[in-house]
Structures are given as structure tokens and as C-alpha cells.
Amino acid sequence: MRFRYVAVTLANERHIGWVEAPSPEAAAAELRLKGLVTIRLEKASAFASIWTSLNREVSFRPPLTASDLANLSQEWAGLVEAGISVEESLGFLQSSCKPSGRNVLARVREEVKEGSTLHEALAHRPDCFPLTYVTLVQAGETAGSLGSTLRRLADDLASQRSILEDIRNALLYPAFLLITAVIGISTLLVVVVPNLENLFGTRSHETLPTATRLVIATSHLLREGGIAILISLSVLAFGLAMAARTDSGRLAIHRGLLKTPVVGFLVLIIETGRFTRSLGALLKGGVTVSRAMPIAIRTVANQALRTRHERAHALILTGSGVGDALAEADAMSADAIGLIRMGERTGQLDASLERIAVLYEGRATRRLKALTTVLTPVLTIGFGLLAGVIIYAMLSTILSINDLASQ
Questions:
Q1: Lowest-confidence segment of 104-113, 191-200, 261-270, 321-330 by average pLDDT
Q2: Which end of the chain, N or C, is surrounded by fewer C-beta atoms within 10 Å?
């Protein structure tokens, strides 16, 4: 959800803006991490969400990407574990960081020098440091184990980056094949078919075979209404994008994704792996379940699943176990809930969550590879057959006309 807030700093400076959070309590907690005292917090209307999206500053790359943050955390952990202070380690990191990231680290270092804690300085830059990252740093500072916390964060970020790269690589070739095939078929219908159609001369279309007439009609539709079709598709895509910026629209789209065969189960696997990895890392860092759960929920991208996790969190606050709450909210599959219940019984919930994350991330990668292994030949054969049907329908008619003319 998106909330509009009015808040002040400790120096009594007024701030007005927007914050995304699963609940008003989580929004207020995030503002506290930024050093802001909330005066007013209200849920944004659908129109306000769309207006904010349209007026948001466009940024194609954040100053620190997930890859940059993983490498940075790895180096940072080594410096802190070597006994170098936070301020000095930030100075060392600046020299090895790219210019945009160097500016971010310089501002963080300046705030630390002025007396802010490290997690407070990081919380002021949510575009670079996610809430999970900031919370774990805070837990590491409190426990006096910042070095090991940063190393664990680096390992988790590297693992997440590996999963995302596997997903991207698995989908890259089918997407390229789909785009190429669509362009090829469109060129065939718009350029080749009209030239072949001219060979029919003045022959009436009613005397042509059904397949030929269908190909010609499709060609005419693309040539005469192609611009209108493109505009309609663009408007539809824009409308869906804007609907996805509202709570109700995003929820409807994400519910539809979960109900889609194959895709829905894949979304569930990916989201379960992401959620359990975040929750497990937070619990291992010493954060309590009641506080860790809302932060881990922020990592769930599917709004329908996020709503289920929020319902589970509400049940946990009333005294339910984590496994029982997730089962009642139907937030995970049965095998994942079984592992969580086992972890609760043995007092190793954080380890069980990390095992689930590894299991489900591997399962997501295998499912994607299997899907693309099947999808690639299906697309190739499907578009090949379509192109073959178009060529056959036109050439067979031309040959039959030539046969009649020679008799």
C-alpha cells in the first residue's frame, strides 16, 4: 500500500511525501528508521497513486545496484572484521566504488561522523539499501557483530543475484525467439502476401480456397488497421501499468497470475524462496519474529500473496505459531509449512527457513529451465508451421491458377 505522510525530524524540519508499506504500522516504523516522527499518515487514493507514478522522477539505474551492494558488503565485512571503524571503512570503500555509489557512501559517512548510527544513515537512502538490509545492520550494531552481519548479507545478496540471473537467462532466448517470430510473420503478411496476391489478377476472392482467403484477410487487416492495433495494444499496456500502480488493480492482476496454470505455481515457488530467505536472515540476525515478519513481507512482490502473509502475521501476533499461521492463511505450500513447523519444534526456525529458501530457489531454477526447454521447440515448431501454412496457402493457389491457364 502507498501512504502519504507528514512528519518532522528531531530538528523540527517538516517533511511531506509518500511511503510504501504493507500497513500503517509498518509505514510508521519505516519513517522512524529514517529519523522522522510521524504527524499524519493516510492511505493514498487510487488517483493519487497514479498521479505520483506519472510525476515520479525517472531513474533507469539506482546509484547502487544489487550486484554493487553485494560486492560492497563483502569488502565492508572484511574491513570491519579487521578492526577498522565504520567511518574509516566507509572511506576505504569510497575509493573502490563507482562514482554514483561513491557519492552515496560519502553522504553516509558524513552522517556517521555527525553522530548518526550506521543503520539510521543507511535508512535515509532506501533506493540503495533495502529495509531488510538496514534492519539486519541495526541488529548487527546492537549485538556487536556488524562484520559477520555484513558478510551474511553479502552471501544472501549474491545468492539472490544468482537466482535472478538464472531466471533472466532462462527467459531470454524464448523472449528473443518470440519477438523474432512475430516480426517475421508480420513481415510475411504485410510485404510478401500482397505481392503474391497481385498474381491472382482479377480473379474473385470467393473462388479462392478458404485458407487463402483467411491469409489474405489477415494481411489486409494488418495493412489497413496495423496502426490502430498497435495503438490499442499500447493503450491496453499503459492501462494495465497504471492499474498495477493502484492497490485494487495490482491485487486483481496478481490474483490472476496466481490462478494462471504453470505461471501461478512458479510465482508461488519464487515468492516463497524470497520470503523465507529474508525472514531466515532476519531471525538469524537476532530480530524477533513479530518484528521480522513485516520486513520480510516487504520482499514479497505478489500483492495477493503479500495479503496472505499479512494475515498470517496478524495470527502470529495473537499467539499462533509461524507454521500454523502460514497454513491457515494459505501463504505457502504444505512441504514448506512442514519444514517451518519442524524448525519451530527444534528451536531452529532460522535454519529451517534458510533450507526452504535454498530448496525453493533451486526448484524455481529447475522449473524455469524445464519450461524453457519445452517452450523453445514449441515456439519454433508453432511459428514454423504458421509460416508454412501462409506460404502453402498462397503458392498452392498460384500454381492451381497457372495449371488452369495452361489447359
A1: 191-200
A2: C
Task: Please say whether the beta carbons of 132 and 296 come within 8 A.
Answer: yes
pLDDT at 220: 87
Segment 188-220, tens digit of pLDDT: 888 888 887 777 665 556 677 788 888 888 888
- Find how far residue 265's CA is from the centre of its chain: 16
The Cα 254–Cα 303 span in angstroms is 6
**The C-alpha cell of 326 is what?**
502460514
Residue 319 has pLDDT above 80, yes or no: yes
> Distance between CA atoms of 7 and 142, rounded to whole angstroms?
26
DSSP-derived letter for residue 208 is: S
Residue 138 CB: number of other CB atoms within 10 A? 22
Residue with cell 499500447: 234
**Cα–Cα distances in angstroms (integers) from residue 245 to residues 200, 254, 263, 301, in the given order:** 52, 12, 21, 13
pLDDT band at 53 (very low <50, low <70, confident <90, very high): very low
Please tell me the distance from the alpha carbon of residue 272 to that of residue 353, in angstroms, as a whole number: 10
- Give the three-state DSSP class for 38: strand
What is the CA angle 145-149-150, rounded to 5? 120
Contact 253, 240 (CB under 8 A): yes
β-pair partners for 15: 7
Are the beta carbons of 36 and 9 closer than 8 angstroms? yes
Q: CA gyration radius for the chain?
A: 28
With a CB cutoff of 8 Å and minimum separation 6, the contacts of 127 are 59, 62, 63
Phi, psi of 62 (to 5 degrees): -70, 160
Tens-place pLDDT, residues 104-115: 888 888 888 888
> In this model, does residue 328 exceed pLDDT 90?
yes
